[in-house]
Design brief:
about 400 residues, alpha/beta, Rossmann fold, elongated
Length: about 400
């Protein structure tokens, strides 16, 4: 369905644009293509030095609601100004004593902007700062909000149960990206079951055309942030054995992160400097080019020591769309797309030997690569088309707004 063009919906994000969150950019572009009027609010300035080419196509206005300097008199002035036009403000502040003053002040700034622009619904990505500010601003302005919960914002040890529960309880709807998340949240928060919705992160399939992987170079590709949950240390360990068995094989791991020095040291220690390359972060066009070349996309995801884990890595979906066979693990939502021997190859977490064997199977067996890739592409077409999935979100926003006005 198409929404009334007079209905204003805003997306609230911690940082926009963010290089690692291609799914948010795809979702916004799909909404714009369908004619949904959007405002985009960013709580922080981006410190990324690279941006995806598709960012140039975003037409929605982006407004930064930046964290204030923390002076007490500024907070009081903000509170007074917001309360004058939205009398619920003082009550919202009183009912949320655990919220940091800077977050509360951002919420007041957002609430006034929302009121000035006639925005009636806020949607945040990740149940962290963006949802904190959206929840408070919505309560002040007397409008609705929803948010998409992904993975770190659900499972990480830093998640405060009381704070997260308040966001779940007050939201008009909670979107999440896998059946695993759906079951986890509904089991722990039964009161929200009727407002919990599974909507997959989607892809613009025109940007990820399928190609037959039968004739690919012996390249194993990894893509993601250099953090524990991505499991890249196990991929590097596997590469040492892969090189012994298949000397012409190479591996590239695209990304950046806190473990970069440790990964480079591991590559040096194993003597893999000529076959395992860390080229740094790359724009989406370069990632796609590498996906078209690779025989394997390895995503050896693990449950990190701090509880962090992937929900369903976007690059896994991109590889499956483009015909690049995937090897991955059983973390959260991954088994919902990765059926071993059908749409990819599954290996246990933290098992370099199994990862080695799976990668070698794909590097050496062109027919297996093709069979898996055809099945994987069909799954992506059936369940991960951004136009269909963004339509589900627009339908959800429309229902929320209709219910709020009835």
């Amino acid at each position: 369905m198409s929404m009334d063009r007079n209905v204003e919906v805003a997306y609230v994000l911690k940082v926009f644009p963010r290089f690692s969150q291609t799914f948010v950019l795809s979702e916004i572009l799909a909404h714009e293509e369908a004619g949904l009027p959007l405002n985009i609010f960013s709580m922080r300035l981006s410190d990324d030095t690279r941006f995806h080419e598709a960012l140039a196509h975003v037409q929605s206005p982006v407004t930064h609601i930046l964290k204030p300097n923390g002076k007490a008199y500024d907070f009081v002035d903000e509170l007074r100004a917001t309360h004058e036009v939205m009398p619920a403000t003082m009550d919202v502040v009183a009912r949320n004593p655990w919220v940091a003053a800077g977050d509360m002040q951002q919420a007041m700034m957002l609430a006034r902007t929302v009121r000035e622009r006639g925005i009636r619904h806020l949607h945040a990505h990740f149940g962290t700062i963006a949802t904190t500010v959206s929840r408070l601003a919505a309560a002040m302005a007397g409008i609705t909000y929803s948010f998409t919960a992904h993975a770190k914002d659900i499972f990480h040890e830093s998640v405060r149960p009381e704070d997260f529960s308040s966001k779940l309880e007050d939201a008009a709807a909670i979107v999440t990206v896998s059946d695993y998340n759906l079951g986890y949240l509904s089991a722990r928060h039964p009161s929200i079951a009727g407002r919990l919705v599974h909507v997959n992160n989607g892809l613009d399939l025109e940007q990820f055309p399928y190609s037959d992987p039968s004739d690919r170079q012996p390249l194993v590709l990894g893509v993601g942030r250099f953090v524990e949950k991505k499991g890249f240390t196990y991929l590097i360990e596997a590469c040492a054995e892969i090189r012994k068995r298949l000397p012409g094989a190479r591996c590239e791991i695209i990304g950046v992160g806190v473990l970069e020095d440790a990964l480079r040291a591991q590559i040096d220690r194993l003597g893999l400097g000529d076959s395992v390359i860390l080229p740094g972060p790359q724009p989406q066009g370069e990632v796609r080019a590498k996906l078209r070349q690779a025989s394997v996309l390895a995503a050896p995801c693990v449950l990190a020591a701090d509880g962090d884990r992937d929900g369903l890595p976007t690059v896994l979906l991109e590889a499956m769309a483009m015909g690049t066979p995937v090897v991955s693990t059983d973390v959260t939502g991954i088994p919902e797309v990765l059926e071993d021997g059908v749409t990819g190859l599954a290996v246990p977490q933290r098992d370099p030997s199994a990862l080695t064997a799976a990668c070698l199977r794909l590097l050496e067996d062109a027919e297996l690569r093709k069979n898996l890739s055809v099945n994987a592409r069909q799954l992506i077409e059936d369940r991960f088309d951004i136009r269909q999935n963004s339509r589900e979100l627009r339908d959800l926003f429309s229902r929320i707004l209709r219910d709020a006005s009835s």
